[in-house]
Design brief:
Layout: E1 8-9, E2 20-24, E3 27-28, E4 34-40, E5 54-63, E6 70-76, E7 97-102, E8 108-116, E9 120-130
This protein binds fe (iii) ion.
Residues 18, 46, 52, 116, 118-119 line the site of fe (iii) ion.
Length: 131
């Protein structure tokens, strides 16, 4: 029986359309906020249709040496083209991207997870240093 952690897939986002793309500064000045953008499909677009789309993205920060990560943001993407006329009829599609910022006095790792309604859970991560 798989555990949750076994179900997260990861890959190079330049080659795999599902891998979340984290964009943030590699180093921040002490006292400055960390600005983060996360999207899915930056290099290879992911479908955004009623039957196939990205449902949500979450962002966590894991300070170096900490036992637990901290959830920084969670964004649900709610419009996938559906309407009373049927699937893919509304022309309204939420794009799977988010921007957020947070403060930290410790360096660490930003982790992002995302969920495709038919291809499951994906993750990626990037380091943040403080100068
Ligand atoms: Fe997919």
């Amino acid at each position: 029986m798989p555990e949750m952690k076994d179900l997260f897939q990861s890959a190079d986002w330049k080659k795999e359309k599902h891998a979340p793309v984290i964009e943030s500064a590699a180093t921040i000045q002490k006292g400055d906020a960390v600005s983060v953008s996360v999207s899915v499909g930056k290099e290879i677009p992911h479908p955004n249709t009623t039957p196939h789309h990205i449902r949500w993205i979450e962002v966590f920060f894991h300070p170096e040496g900490a036992k637990f990560p901290y959830q920084v943001a969670r964004v649900e993407f709610s419009a996938h083209g559906e309407s009373s006329e049927g699937p893919d009829t509304s022309t309204i599609y939420t794009k799977p991207s988010l921007s957020c910022s947070f403060t930290t006095e410790k360096p660490g790792t930003i982790l992002a997870s995302s969920y495709c309604n038919i291809h499951g859970l994906w993750q990626s991560h990037t380091k943040v240093e403080i100068s």
